[in-house]
Amino acid sequence: MPEISFSDLMSLHWGDTPVLFEHHPGPSSGSIWVHLPEEKILFVGDTVLKNQPPFLAGSNLKHGLNQSTNF
Q: DSSP assignment, residue 15?
């Protein structure tokens, strides 16, 4: 069981650097993105893969399409 959980957004700091954990259901209902806004870095996990079709088994296509507009 996780010791830390969140619903929509959780903000932590790594030194002086803010790190945002954002809930973005898409490929799976528990998908999150990790955003370092000051460094302009966004880690989306396997939400987007270069030259690969999306893995759709068990995914929610409606959520996935909605989240793709957030890029």
A: T
